[in-house]
């Protein structure tokens, strides 16, 4: 990457703060206006004045702008049933020229652990690393469990207001809360199912062996969850092989995917990724269903070992879920893309005992990635959108329209932007959201 395009840390923090302030203000206005709602749309309906991208504009082989036009969409049975020339006088929902993009996906969040919608609480001084945070959780979880469903519901509304209709949520499974966090979250998601869907990761936040969470993980694996989680096998559980072997076998036994938290940045972090790659290659059914969240060790590898691991991750079809950290831990996202590794993002913490800086916007994460890696051109900014949409883009790299198509699920976000490049660069305000054809707002 071109380092001269990367912001200095001081400049980045200044610009980032302004962006976050704008997003929070926009979301507050939406909530104050009472616009966030969920309406089940079983009958066909139309939306006029929808702006769609149709191609790139070139100058001397460089993409300098994005072509768009207005269309009328027909929605039926949760899908796009027709895309026609715009009918501005038609009796239809009016998008008022808003840009339609694929609905956003927050692919790493903890919906079950949040202070959101309650009184402000700053993060307490951390003591003892992750194990110290485990001790803190053991003390505060019993009280938090009393309002998990209500706060999770409010957090879902925050994500919706920022254009996300889908999330991958890690949910605590450990001896303190047992299966209660999972049950509470199921109740919250059931109430939001018309406008939101989440795939769930059974997450042994207090370690598989450190607090012996294995019995509860086995029960959770048989319930309505999608992934088996994990946490720092070496530093928390004392053994990479024992922890990964348990996780892999549980996933195989219950036909689940895998998504493990890996904060370890030293030799143990590298060995954990290498061992997971080995196990997934031995069990091809896990390919395309296995992810490493955070994977901070990749940010500290030299070029040659990084290239080798990236190539191996791509071979095993193991994805990386990153919150796009900055400062001393800048993840090698361009290298992962270069080798064809799937990269996802999410807010992780919104407001909880781990972190209070979450905005709820994954479009902001795409903006952050573009700033960190110098993706400043029209073409590069438009490609950056894929971080927010789980790798769906309106135009392919050559400017051919590939979304939306008739038959696609009616999952889309409407934004006040002229094109996806502007949406990423300016973190464009969200004006509407559809989920499976249902009008969320």
TrEMBL record:
Protein name (Swiss-Prot/TrEMBL): Amidohydrolase
Start and end residues of each Amidohydrolase domain: 246-441
UniProt xrefs under InterPro entries: Amidohydro_3, Metal-dep_hydrolase_composite, Metal_Hydrolase, Metallo-hydrolase_Enzymes
Residue ranges that the Swiss-Prot or TrEMBL entry lists as coiled coil: none
Superkingdom classification of source: Bacteria
Species per Swiss-Prot/TrEMBL record: Sphingobacterium oryzagri
Stored CDD domains: Bact_CD
């Amino acid at each position: 990457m071109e380092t001269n395009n990367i912001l200095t840390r001081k400049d980045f923090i200044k610009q980032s703060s302004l962006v976050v302030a704008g997003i929070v203000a926009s979301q507050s206005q939406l909530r104050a206006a009472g616009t966030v709602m969920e309406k089940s749309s079983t009958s066909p309906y139309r939306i006029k004045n929808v702006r769609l991208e149709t191609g790139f504009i070139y100058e001397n082989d460089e993409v300098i702008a994005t072509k768009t036009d207005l269309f009328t969409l027909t929605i039926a049975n949760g899908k796009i049933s027709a895309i026609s020339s715009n009918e501005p006088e038609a009796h239809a929902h009016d998008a008022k020229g808003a840009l339609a993009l694929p609905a956003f996906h927050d692919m790493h969040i903890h919906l079950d652990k949040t202070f959101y919608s309650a009184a402000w609480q700053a993060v307490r001084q951390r003591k003892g690393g992750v194990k110290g945070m485990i001790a803190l959780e053991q003390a505060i979880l019993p009280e938090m469990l009393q309002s998990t469903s209500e706060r999770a519901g409010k957090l879902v509304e925050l994500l919706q207001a920022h254009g996300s209709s889908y999330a991958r949520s890690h949910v605590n499974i450990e001896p303190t809360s047992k299966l209660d966090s999972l049950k509470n979250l199921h109740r919250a998601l059931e109430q939001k199912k018309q406008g939101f869907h989440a795939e769930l990761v059974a997450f042994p936040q207090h370690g598989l062996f450190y607090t012996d969470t294995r019995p509860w993980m086995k029960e959770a694996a048989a319930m309505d969850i999608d992934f088996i989680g994990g946490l720092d096998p070496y530093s928390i559980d004392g053994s990479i092989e024992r922890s990964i072997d348990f996780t892999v076998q549980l996933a195989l036994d219950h036909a689940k995917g895998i998504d493990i938290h890996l904060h370890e940045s030293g030799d143990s972090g590298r060995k954990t990724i290498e061992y997971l790659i080995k196990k997934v290659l031995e069990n091809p059914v896990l390919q395309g269903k296995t992810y490493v969240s955070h994977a901070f060790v990749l940010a500290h590898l030299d070029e040659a070992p990084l290239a080798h691991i990236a190539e191996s991750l791509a071979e095993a079809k193991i994805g990386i879920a990153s919150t796009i950290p900055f400062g001393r831990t800048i993840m090698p996202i361009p290298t992962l893309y270069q080798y064809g590794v799937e990269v996802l993002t999410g807010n992780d913490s919104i407001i909880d005992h781990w972190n209070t800086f979450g905005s709820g916007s994954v479009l902001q994460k795409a903006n952050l990635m573009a700033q960190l890696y110098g993706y400043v051109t029209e073409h590069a900014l438009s490609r950056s959108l894929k971080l927010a949409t789980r790798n769906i883009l309106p135009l392919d790299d050559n400017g051919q329209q590939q979304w939306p198509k008739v038959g696609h699920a009616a999952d889309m976000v409407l934004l006040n932007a002229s094109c996806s490049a502007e949406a990423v660069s300016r973190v464009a305000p969200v004006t509407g959201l559809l989920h499976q054809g249902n009008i969320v707002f």
